[in-house]
Model the fold of this input.
Amino acid sequence: MKQKIVIFAGTGAILAALPLVLNAYWIDVLNNIGIYAILALSLNLIVGHTGLFNLGHAAFYAVGAYTAAILNTTCHIPVLWLLPVCGFTAGLFALLVARPIIHLRGDYLCIVTIGVGEIVRIALINDVFGITGGANGIFGVSRPSVFGFALRTPLQFFYLIWIFAGVTVILFHLLEYSRVGRALNYLREDEVAAEGSGINTARYKLIAFVLGAAWAGMAGNIYAAKMSIISPESFSFWESVLMFSIVILGGSGSIPGVLIGAFLITGLPEIFRQFASARMLIFGAAMVAMMIFRTQGLLPAGPRKYRLPPLASEGDKA
Amino acid sequence: MPKSGKLDSLRYWPRKDRVDSTGPPPFHLDQLKIVNRTKFMEQLALQLTNGLAVGGIYALIALGYTMVYGVLKLINFAHSDLFTLGAYLGFTLLASHFLTGMGPFWGTVILALMVMGMIAIVGALLDRVAYRPLRESPRLSAVVSALGASIFLQNAIMLVYGARYQVYPQDILPRMAMNILGIQVPLVRVLVLCISLAMMGGLYFFIQKTKVGTAIRAAAIDQGAARLMGIDVNRVILMVFMVGPALGGAAGLLVGLYYGQINFTMGWGYGLKAFTAAILGGIGNIPGAMLGGLLLGVIESLGAAYVSLAYKDAIAFLVLILILIFRPTGLLGERVAEKV
Amino acid sequence: MKKSLILVFAMCFIASTALAAGPIKIGLMGPMTGSWASEGQEMKQVVELLAEEVNAKGGVNGQKVEVISEDDGGDPRTAALAAQRLATLGVVAVVGTYGSAVTEATQNTYDEAKIIQIANGSTAIRLTEKNLKYFFRTCPRDDEQAKVAAATIRKLNIRKVAILHDNSTYAKGLADETKGLLGKDKSVEIVFFDALTPKEQDYTTILTKMKGANPDFVFFTGYYGEAGLLLKQKREMGWNVPFMGGDATNNPDLVKVAGKEGAAGFYFISAPLPKDLPSEEAKAFLATFSKKHGNPPGSIYSVLAGDGFRVTIAALEQAKAADSGKMADYLHSGLKDYPGLTGKISFNEKGDRVGEVYKVYRVNPEGQFILQP
Done:
C-alpha cells in the first residue's frame, strides 16, 4: 500500500513539474492525454474490470459534452458547476440504453454499442430536438473559472485536467478494491460461477456500465470547457476505437497500464508529426507491433493480492 | 413554407390557373388513387431492388467477417481495408491495359481471379504478421491488433494511390435497363446481385461439401478436438484468411466496376455495415451473413425512402438493436452458453 | 571524427550568423490525413510551390520564406493541437484550414498569439462575426454563394426545386441559406429538402425518392465525389432533371466519376477558375503547377489557400517586417483589388473577402467547364 502511494505521489510530482520544461504545444498534448486518460479509465471499468465489450463509449462522452455546452450557452450556468449534471445525464442515458441489452453476449454487445455510438452521432449531426446545432456543433462555451479565476491558457487547463485525472485514479483504485470491484472481476472471470455464488450479474454489469458512462460524461464536460466549441466529428466511432485501444494496449483492468496506454495512443501521433501524411501509417504499425510484443498489454493487471487474515484458532472462517 | 408532405398530396390536383375551358377535365378521385397506388408500388419495387443490390455487396463482405469469426472468434477489423485494397488492385490492373485483348467477359473473369488471388495472399500475410502471434493471448488483444492493421492498410493505400478519388475506366459492365414486371431496372444492378449470390452459393458449397470445408467447420466447432482428429488447424486458419478476404476483394472490385469511383476511406462505411450484417444474421453462420447482408440493404433502402433519409444509418442500427433484444444471437445464430 | 563534428558545428554557426535572420515562417494547416486528405495534400502542393517561387525571386524583404505544414486531420481536437504547435514554432501567419468547425477550434489560439489566420475553405458565416483582428478568409461566405444560387434558380425559371445536402457544416449552411432566400419567393416551391450520407457509393435510393417528389431542378450543395455519383446514377435511371452544385463540386474529377454524358449540362457555382481569369499570374501559376504535378489543381479550395499565401506575402512586403499587427491592418484596409489566382481580393473590416466572387459554370458535352454569361 505504501509503495503505491509513493508511486502515485511521485508520478504526480513529476507531472506537476513537467510544464516548467515544456512549451504550450506540449502542454496541450499533455492535456489531450489527460482527457483520454480519464476517458480510458472510465472505459476500463466497463471493458477491463467487467469484461463488457464496449466500442461506443464516445456516445456517453458526447452526451456529457453536449449537456455542458447546451446548458452553458442557453442557461449560462458556469461550465464546471455542470460537472455532476453531465455525469448524471450521461449515466442516465447509459442506463436507458444498457437496460435492455446488457444480457447480450460479448460480440453482440460490441455491435450494439457501436450502433448506439453511431445513432448518437447521426442524431447530433441532424440537430436532434433542435438543440445540438447540427454539423456546426455548439460554439461559445464560456471559459471555466475556479474560485473566480478564469482558465484560459493550456497551462491552466493542464492543472484542471490532471487534478481531475488524479481524483479519478484514486476513486477508481478504491472502487477496484471494494466489494463492487471484486464482484465485477468475478463476473468477468466466470459469469456462471459468479451468478452461482449469488452475484446479481445483470445488476453489477449495469452498475459498471452506468458508472463508466457517467465518468465519460464528466470528461465530456471538461472537453467542452477546454475547446469552447464542440461538433459531432469529435465523437465519431474513431474516438471509441482510440479509447478502446488505450485500455487493451495499456493493460486491461490495470490503472497504471491504462495511463501508459493513454500516453502512447494519444502521444505517438503527435511525435510522428514529422512524418507528415505517413504519421497514421506508422501509428497503425506501432499499434500492431506493441500488441504483438506485449500480448497482455504493456502493464497488465497482476493477480489480486490479499492480506492473509489473522490465523484463527477455530475454523470458523474460510 | 409549406411542408413537402402536403405538397405531395396536392400535386395531382390541377392548379386553379390551369383549369380553363380548353384544358383537360379535372381528375376524378378514384382515378387519382390508382395513379398514386401504381406509382407507390413502382417506387417500392425500385427501392427494393436498390436495397438488394447494396445488400448483395454487404453480404459478400460480411462473409469474410463471419468466416474468420467462426474459426477464431476474432472480429477482423482490417477486413474492410482488404475490401478497399481489392478495389484499388482492380483499378491498377485495369489501368495497365494488359487485359484489353480478352474481351469483356473473360477479361472481367480473369481480372476478378487475379484480384482475389492477390487479396488472398495479403490476407494470409496479415494473419501471419498481426494475428498469429496473438493466438494464445486475450481475445481483445487481437482486436486491437486488427484495428492497428486497419489503420496501417488504409493509410498505406492513401500513400500509394493518393488521397483523391480514383475512377475506374467507364463502361466495362453493360449499361442497359432491364424490364422486370414493368419496372425499368438497370441490368448491372441485377448482375451485381447475381454475382454476389453466385459467389455466396459457391462458398456455401465449398464449406458444406468439400473436405477442406469440413475441416473448417470442424475447427470452428472445437479447435482442440479438430486437432485430435488430425486436422492441421493452422492450415485451416490460413485457408479462412485466404477465402474470406478473397471474397471481400471481389466485393471491392465489384464496387469499383459498378460505381466507378473508389476512395481510400470507403472501407470504413462498408465494413461497419457488413459487420452489422454478419451480426444480424448471427455471427459465425454463413447463410446468416448472406441473409443479414441482403436484409440490411433492404432495411436501409426502405428506411431511407419511407422514414428518413438523413437518419438512414441510424434506422439500420436501431433495427439491429431491436432484433438483438428479441433474438440475442442474431437471426440464424445458435443459442450457445458463453462458457461451459 | 570529433574534429569533423566541431567543424560542422562551426560551419553551421557561421552559416546561421551569415544569414542575418532566419527565414520567415508561415504555417499551413490542412487535413493531410483522414477523409479530407486529398484537399489538405493539394493545399500543401499549391502553397509550397508558391513559396518556392517567392524564394526563387529572393524572398520577401530579403528574407526567405519557410512553409511549415501541420496536419489537422479534419478534426477539431487535432486542429487545436496543430494550432498550438504552429504558435510555438513562431509562425507569423497561418493559411488554413478547410472545415469550418475545425477552423473555429483554432481561432482563439491564433488570435491570442497574434498570428494572422487566412482560412481557405471555411465558409460558415459565424467565423467572421466575432470580429477577430487576425482572422481572414479568401473563400466567400455561405450567404454569398446562396445569393448566387437563388438568383440562378430564378433566372432559369424553375418552379419546383429539390435541395439536397450532405449534413456537413458547409453543405447544410448553403442549403439552409438558399432555402431561406427561395422561401421569400412565391414562384418557386421547394418540393424536397433532405440530406444524404456522404462517402457512400449507392445513391439510387435517394434519387428514386427525389424523383417521386417530381422536381424541375435539383440543387446539391455537397461535394464533387457524391455529385459525380448522383449524376451518373441519375442517368442510369433515365431521369433527365438538371442538376446544380455548389463550389465544392468544382473539381475535374467530377466529370471522371460521372462520365461525360452524365456530367453534361451540370451547373455549378464557383469562384472563377484560373483559366477564366484575365491575370497572367493565374495562368502562369496553373502552367507551373501542371508541369510539376502532372495535372492542374483539382480543388478550388487549394487555389484559395494559394491566394491566402499570396496576400500574406503582399502584407509582409507592405509591413516591411514580420509584424502581424501591421500586416493585419494592411489586409483590412490597405489591400485593395489584389490580383489573386481566383480574382480580385479585398477584405472588409470583419476579415471577409468582399466583392462578387461567384460565377456560374456549366459542363459541356466534352466535359469542360464553361463560364456562363
Q: What stands out?
A: The longest strand of chain B covers residues 177-180. Confidence is low (pLDDT under 50) at residues 1-27 of chain B. The beta strands of chain B are 166-167, 177-180, 183-186, 261-262. Chain B touches chain A through 51 residues (CB under 8 Å).
